[in-house]
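User: I'm writing a tutorial on reading structure tokens. Could you give me a worked example: one chain, its sequence, then its tokens, then a sentence or two explaining what the tokens reveal?
Assistant: Sure. Here is the example chain.
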Amino acid sequence: MLSLHTSPLDQPGVGDAGGLNVYVLELACRLAAADVDVEIFTRGSGSMELSDTSTQKAVDVCPGVRVVHLGSPVPGHTTKEELPAQLCAFAAGLLRTELTRGGDYFDLVHSHYWLSGQVGAVVSDHWGVPLVHSMHTMALVKNRRLATDDKPEPHLRILGEQQVVAAADHLIANTTDEAEDLIDLYQADPRLVDVVHPGVDLDVFTPGDQMWARQRLGVGADESLLLFVGRIQPLKGPDLFVHTVAELLTRAGQRDRPLTAVVCGGPSGAGPDRVDELRSLAARLGVSDRIRFEPPTGRFQLADWYRAADIVCVPSYSESFGLVAIEAQACGRPVVAAAVGGLNTSVADGESGILIDSHEPTAWAEVLAELLRDHEARRLMGQRARAHAERFGWSSTAAGTLNIYRRAINRHSRARGRDDRTG
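And here are its predicted structure tokens:
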């Protein structure tokens, strides 16, 4: 597996780490449980030193899965925009690694995100093995629904994604909507696109006692608690969350209500100033006393935050699936989310949560106010949320992915056989 964009060992919610990190690591460990040996290649911590791509740091994360960091860490942070300049160095380091293993060591390359796909196209061709690719997000999709202060993805990325789609032996989409986008926007061959939903760890993210969770986290028993989890960047809509809280408190009967809104996440994209800007926004709107900022946390404490909440809000402008939404539902909590991308699949509208086809604070405040008033509706949604989440276990994700691997390998072998005969 290739995860050049971000290391799967990085803490989700900080920098560029998010659902992709969780996806790569969980999928790899579940594949290993099915007797597939997996090596995940990613960048060294910090910027990769281009002059020394032979340097490696390997970490065994579970039986059968090794994460290999290529390159020497150097001071400073490499931004996402700077990563295309490192593709050649990363590919060279990866090819050099394979030389030490002997021929025919790898059976297949699975790349994640377009940058990894660029490297995957090179090394899979050199090794004579199939390339399976997962986009996770796509520039043409993101650019259709940008937040007000967000920047469109550059043409360089669009071109790179088109090249990866053309080079891949098979494409894995998170949802049917994503599969249709690959076909309609990137002219992917429909025969080479399959849908495999991401999963959730149903043993970690479980329903639990709300009051116990609140006690552990320092939340009052009588408070209404709204929760946002994610990177602090325009794409995820944290500013909409803050505006919504302000709008909610202007409504009759809400200002005197004990209500706390928690933002759990770290800066991303625009840098560390983004959190300060969000705090300033809360101050300008007069809701600083209602907004609690929490740093990104490990998954066990994150599960406690979900259990402590009354409603989990996912106001993203684009999501390939929405792991936060499915994790929250696995903990038995209703989700109010934007009706975009994969959230249309991960949230069962009207059953496990509510989808809103708007990014206007007034629309969000109206839905949240009604749901906060109706305890019985929240309770029933919470019950149905867990049942809905149980459809998305990681074991099912691994089984579907492994089936695609087998098909890609068989098809690639047949194609090479034909080439040998014609040659």
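What the tokens reveal: The longest strand covers residues 56-62. The longest helix spans residues 394-422.
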